Amino acid sequence: MARDKFARQSLGGTLHQRIKEARVLMVGAGGIGCELLKNLVLSGFGEIHVVDLDTIDLSNLNRQFLFRNEHIKKSKALVAKESAGRFNPSVTIEAYHDNIKEGQFNVAWFQTFSIVFNALDNLDARRHVNKMCLAASVPLIESGTTGFNGQVQVIKKGETECYDCTPKETPKSFPVCTIRSTPSQPIHCIVWGKSYLFAEIFGTSEDEAPELDHSEDADNANEVANLQEEAHALQRIRGSMGSPLFPRLVFDKVFNEDIERLRSMEDMWKTKRPPEALVYDQLAHQALSVGPTIAQQDQVVWDVAENFAVFVDSLRRLSNRFEETRASAEAGNAAPILSFDKDDVDTLDFVVASANLRSHIFGIEMRSKFDIKQMAGNIIPAIATTNAMTASLCVLQAFKVMREQLDKAKMVFLTRGTERVISSESLRPPNPNCATCGVAYATLHVDTKRAKLSDLVEYVLKEQLGYGEDFSVKRHADLLYDVDEDVHLNKTFEELSLKADTFITVFDEADENAKVDVVFSVIEHEFTENAKPLRLPEELKIAAKPKAPASETTGHATTNGTVPNAISTGATNGTTNGTTNGATKRTASDAGLEDAIVRKKGKIMEELQKSDDIVIIDDANDGVILIDDD
Ligand SMILES: Nc1ncnc2c1ncn2[C@@H]1O[C@H](COP(=O)(O)OP(=O)(O)OP(=O)(O)O)[C@@H](O)[C@H]1O
Ligand SMILES: [Zn+2]
Asked: Polar residues composition bias: which ranges (predicted)?
């Protein structure tokens, strides 16, 4: 019996053949990627390319099941290829231990794929692949999970929303004054412990902390100046590290002196409870009865004396480590710096105790070490089941794209706590004002040694594409040309470093009928000597910019930078989406099922017609699986 008999029966002859001939790209071989690669291999996708820049970590093993203990520190992409390859020897897997943003993965390379799968964990890489798929006109299946939530989005140039069509939330940050002067929640005190106190004593200065938002500094200039002075004073105390007085000096500064100064600013506390400074000697006395194992009790909330004991002890542990690094720095190594790491118990204990002491001062609820570890490490637990379900939904959506049934493809959500675990929404059309997909993509063949910017401006843009006088040409934010900036016109592409795979964007600034922005990707090309040294390889028709303002997006896709993708619990809208009433089922011929099987399945198909839920039927007799997720 042919190995792929059941796959063929389940998928239908046409789709099965397409899958076999497909060349697909999977970016990211982590939590979703491992599951997805297994699914792709077992579904019989003919050629799968896997890109991942990372190596395997111990913490990946609980859910990234293509990896085992012996693979730690090895390339994720290469090990994933090795492990998944064994599931189906007729599938070819190519692995790249590299960043997808590298130049070798250019538009021409993306164009060689039938479909691309994103299994990434960050906005930047996701946005990059989104743009490359638009430029290469390849469909993209975007996915992400966070805890129990998952999401799959089908993106096709010109037909659906792209990843950038709905704005994504940037990582959470807090105004400096909230963290340094007026905390009101445990997270404010945790960020203070981690990004201010720990950083000032053992690391680099707080200015570099991503959690701190300095945009309101100008409005609070006086207080910001005071806070800077406090930080400098703390750095002076850092000089006495190693002395037995060090814990007392730090404690008195941040939990007493600075608090008394804040408390004296009466205006600040008219509507809030003023902070209450702590006294070192009092707590030192109470802490005498605290047991030595308190720091190991991570599920209980420690009282003030217990937090004090852990504060002093972790400060001592960290100071010793710092001194050791300083000694080796003097021996010629890098300057001593410790960084916060949720898995480094000394740094975690210090942040937990400092945050809780500060919470106590401001009348904020204290938290357990376990909770603070999650919050300080921005940890949302990754759940293997969510990854597995999301990866399978990616493949089901890919089937629709490959059947050329984009109208049936859906944005799919996984949520917990709602009536339906899986819900879906129709794909939306592109947002005409999207800066990523509301533009035209084109390639430009160029002999970069001979072609000048003037060839692009005069010959291609004005003569061939009909641009007027008001337009500008940029590479990222660098202005190369506009009507007032013509200094580069006589320079060659090479002189302007416009090498292969560079993107050049042309912005039409005409008052009337302006064209949409065009993104050209430069492709190095050889021309005969007399020919123009650059040309458009294909005819390019550029649409006019839309006139109406963008319609309000309802913002179902929100992302929080650390969270892998466009997910927010409240927004997945589980119960109202994903109605499947009236969904048409695959016909027998479409499915390509053999006659006998169709007869056998007649009853099941009838059942399917009645059902309005996702159905997966496994027939134990002949192994046929009918999957319907319309
Ligand atoms: N620019 C990039 N190029 C290639 N691979 C990338 C890029 N950015 C992220 N990745 C990969 O995407 C994968 C995402 O997987 P996942 O979200 O499970 O993260 P993880 O690092 O494996 O786990 P965790 O972050 O939970 O410890 C990772 O393996 C990561 O290396
Ligand atoms: Zn878009």
From this structure: 551-563
> Do 5-167+382-431+556-571 and 440-535 agree at the fold level?
no
Active site residue 133: no
Q: What is the DSSP string of 171-219?
A: PP-EEHHHHHT---SHHHHHHIIIIIIIHHHHSS-GGG-TTEE-TTGGG
Instruction: For ligand 1, pick from 34, 50, 52, 72 the residue to mutate: most ligand atoms within 8 Å of CB.
Output: 52
Q: What is the CATH number of domain 440-535?
A: 3.10.290.20
Tell me, in angstroms, the distance from the centre of ligand 2 to residue 521's CA. Answer: 18
* pLDDT given at position 473: 96
Where is 34: in which H helix or E strand? helix 31-43
Any idea which ligand is nearest the CA of 131? 2
Q: Is residue 147 marked as binding?
A: no
- Euclidean distance between CA atoms 121 and 29, whole angstroms: 10
Closest ligand to Cα 140: 2
User: DSSP label at 20?
Assistant: H
Whole-number percent of the chain with pLDDT over 70: 82
547 alpha carbon to ligand 2 midpoint, in Å?
Answer: 17
| Strand pairing report for 503-508 and 440-446 | unpaired
In angstroms, the CA 524 to CA 450 distance is 11
What is the DSSP-derived secondary structure letter of residue 452? Answer: B
Task: Inform me whether the pLDDT recorded for 581 exceeds 60.
Answer: no
The closest of 273, 229, 278, 271 to 254, measured between CA atoms, is: 278
Instruction: Name the residue ranges covered by the structural domains of the chain.
Output: 5-167+382-431+556-571, 184-363, 440-535, 588-628
100 CA closest ligand 1 atom index:
3
Is pTM beyond 0.80? Reply is no
What ipTM score was computed for the predicted complex, to two decimals? Answer: 0.97
CATH fold group of domain 5-167+382-431+556-571: Rossmann fold (3.40.50)
